[in-house]
Amino acid sequence: MNNSNSQKLTGKSVNVDSPRKSRHTISVLVDHNLNALSRILGMFNGRGFDIDSISFGKGQQPGLARITITTRGDNSVVEQITKQLHNVIDVVKVKDLTFEPFVARELALIKVTAPASRRSEIMQIVNVFRAKIIDISPDKLTIEVTGNSDKITAALGMLRQFGLVEVARTGSVALTREFTGDT
To answer: What is the pTM of this model?
Structure first.
């Protein structure tokens, strides 16, 4: 398979358009400094790995931060990513959350055109998505939506008809789920 839609990874040819290319969520615990983030971004860039989203923030332990990365690839590509992350200076722990129960959330702030005649329609959509109107002006509304990636994308799709003025969307944040239903 040597076409423009394949790439060499660890001696294997992998079709990058393959249906096996699934979304993975990786949690990385690092020493809290911007060099750690820079090194991780450099590792992804240098090896040609894709990042769908990345978030970085302080964790509960002093001096440590959590980075949540969403990426796409088959299992062998993601295994390479996790192995490479373990080698990055300042990385304390790496965990691919994909194959275990976890919760993930994103946040989007969406500013839409909102003339008085259409506000009730917008408010109905806001209610359906359990979103909030957080700012209002005579001709615009700013809406806060939180949830999984699909929910954010669906809300954007429904609000697009009113005219998107601005959109700010975070990356995913994720933690393993503690309760699994076992008693």
So the answer is: 0.77
